[in-house]
Amino acid sequence: MLLSMEHLRKEYPNGKVAVDDFNLQVDRGEFIAFIGTSGSGKTTTMRMINRMLDQTSGTIKIDGEDISKMDPVKLRRSIGYVIQNIGLMPHMTIQENIEIVPKLLGWSKEKRNTQAHKMIELAQLPDDMLQRYPGELSGGQQQRIGVVRALAADQDIILMDEPFGALDPITRESLQSLVKRLQEDLGKTFIFVTHDMDEALRLATRVVIMSRGKQVQVDTPENILRHPANQFVTNLIGEERLIRAQPNILTVSQIMLDHPASIRPEETLKDAIDRMHDRRVDTLLVVNDQNVLQGFVDLNDINRLTDVTTPIKSFTNHDVFYVQADSLIGDTVDRILKQGVKNVPVVDKDKRLVGIVTRTALVDIVYDALKGAPESDHKPASPINADIHATATKEGGDSQQ
Amino acid sequence: MMHFFATYGTQLLSKTGQHLYISAAALFLGVIVAVPLGVLLTRMKHGANFIISLAGVLQTIPAMALLAMMIPIFGIGSTPAIVALFIYSLLPILRNTYLGMQGVSPTVKDAAEGMGMTWWQRMTQAEIPLAAPVIMSGIRLSATYVIAWATLASYIGAGGLGDFIFNGLNLYRSDLILGGSIPVILLALIVDYLLGKVETLVSPRQLR
């Protein structure tokens, strides 16, 4: 465990409790986002990690070592620090800014110089920018420097306090990509304070939602979207975002139809035609005794045959496209739509048939996600299924293929 | 004019030298006391205003009275003059140092501390360089004051260009009065110009 925070409490002399019983275990390489309204204690908590603030009680350990027993100056040099208003030294060149912590640590001039060139490359900025002053750079460029400066002395943990809050949306997005890339490529651990939910969900491996000094929910972005702990979290995420996030949190099993029309290989052509007629569909899924998907039969193939007693297995089409029940819609929707098929069988881990997804149901989800708002008569989750049932039956009946 | 230089040329040079020495010494003392004091004041939660007001009160003592007050303590000569002028130089430097340090953006201070600079490193590498232009303008202001007031130092036997002026006043000799005043004015202007250059030199490069 890289960073361990236990029962942290911060109480100010005036009796205001800023952080109350905060617990968090952070593994190497994690990207933790602290999110909450202002005054929720997120920045206070972050600032206790590099002892810019001291906790009233509780312990913080880095690699098992209690930081309250460490020299705060040494501790801070080992932790990257990026703040909202950039905090570059205006009287120093970009190179001098990047070299601040390496210089404090007593690195040689050559080593610092090499590192500065490496860092500017990491920031995806031209090398000659090293000799410029912060005032000559745009806000986005300055914050790129701010980010790589925090990595210049090879710090393991990087603290970021709303680093992109003051940037315009496009610049913010490119900075987010930079940070995400650094986290993934360099395996750095980020503690990131933000009030931007999109940012938290996009970047974090785990999100810590805080309110009035307490942790409300600590989980992965997917789980938070799937199961918001309470109304506060739901409000913080926002109804619209929950709907837009559906492709990424709904699984195939949540939108599929149960009991698709199926047939066994040993049944005859007559059985197949009867069943198609009963269910008003033009294809049947072929499954064996264990309900394992074998393929499908299509009405067009059947028409050309005369002998109605022929077993189904002799004209089963084995070339069947299917999806796993527990896969996310967001991951499968493209594949399904590109296949150009109307219906896709859904199977479990053992390839047993569990349901069917219609193209119509998928299109509905994609449409909602793009539009970002629910239709008046259906809410997220279960009511979607009701709509699908209606459209699916209709489509099955009209189908000619 | 030529006659004046022929008669008083050497004297003028030595008096200018004295004048410059008294002013520079007073200013130097003022800088080494007021700048660190101003820096320390920014660390104090209370008392900063009190100390700045105190320096303000010292500033209001009439120059002649202050010089006279120095005689019982330091006798006559350049020492009491330097001490008195030093006291005058304090306020502008102290106040500008304090304001300059206060004016350093909290973000920069936070970043400097958060990156692991010690207090001394924060002061010498971040805050003082950033406050330098404001501090320098305080020093410039003090320098002009001190050069002007050093004229009065002649009154307590410190020498300097004031000697010409006081002699001129006593003897009703306008050439001596002008011969003392004009060099003082020139001196003040030149020093101000040079310190202005220094001010630009210590200012962070800012291109916007």
From TrEMBL, chain A:
This is Quaternary amine transport ATP-binding protein. Residues 256-314, 315-375 form the CBS domain. Residues 3-237 form the ABC transporter domain. Keywords: ATP-binding, CBS domain, Cell inner membrane, Cell membrane, Membrane, Nucleotide-binding, Repeat, Transport. NCBIfam families: proV. One of its GO terms (molecular function) is ATP binding. CDD domains: CBS_pair_ABC_OpuCA_assoc. SUPFAM superfamilies: CBS-domain pair, P-loop containing nucleoside triphosphate hydrolases. It is an enzyme of class 7 (translocase).
From TrEMBL, chain B:
It is found in: Cell membrane; Membrane. InterPro entries: ABC_transp_perm/SBD, MetI-like, MetI-like_sf. Keywords: Membrane, Transmembrane, Transmembrane helix, Transport. Its main location: membrane. The chain crosses the membrane at residues 20-41, 48-67, 73-91, 130-156, 176-195. Residues 16-195 form the ABC transmembrane type-1 domain. It comes from the Bacteria. It is a multi-pass membrane protein. Belongs to the binding-protein-dependent transport system permease family. This is ABC transporter permease.
